[in-house]
Amino acid sequence: MKAICFLLVIFSTIGFTQTDKSVQSRNKAINSSYNYPMHSIDLGISYWNNSKTGTSVKVPGVDIGTGGASGKLIYNFYPDENLAFHVSAGAMAVEVKVWTFHEHTSTVLPIMIGMKYYFTQLFQNKYIRPYITGSMGILFGTESSVEILLVEEHTESALGGYAGIGSDIILGSLVKLHADIGYNLFTDFSEEIGSRKNYSDAEFSFGIGFMF
Length: 212
Fold this sequence. Notes:
Layout: H1 2-33, E1 39-48, E2 55-58, E3 61-64, E4 69-80, E5 83-98, E6 102-118, E7 128-147, E8 151-170, E9 175-186, E10 201-211
């Protein structure tokens, strides 16, 4: 009887060991079948809720604004499947005024550095990757006025940050889409840029990324 019990214990131990090895082998095969790239370059379009920009025509000149639309270039580094560190630079022409012999341009340029955290454990889907994101940086503002014999420029800067949520959508091994929404919070410029001192506002962005 003791010999039978001893054999049952041995067979049970061997069975559990083999099962554990099978699970580990299957998980390893699943993980190795999909290697997420370590870098990506994203081209994005952002819309800021900038209500003071737009387009209007006045005699004898034209006032042109982008309505809060801006372009953005983003570099992402992925140390693992849950994290991404990113650096971004954007540009938005908030106001352009053109008269017969005079041109006035106002532009803001956000430069930010931050990170994303992906909810890979909650959403076990390698094609849809939701995340939360946060970043900090500097918002530069420039204004230039050009007349026939006179050129004037001045530059402002403000510190700030961004927090939001979004998702990557993986289209293939090299291409992805992204979309996120959040809020920018900046300090004031000392002087107005494009009729505003503060550019804290909601932002929606989307774009395409190339992974490598």
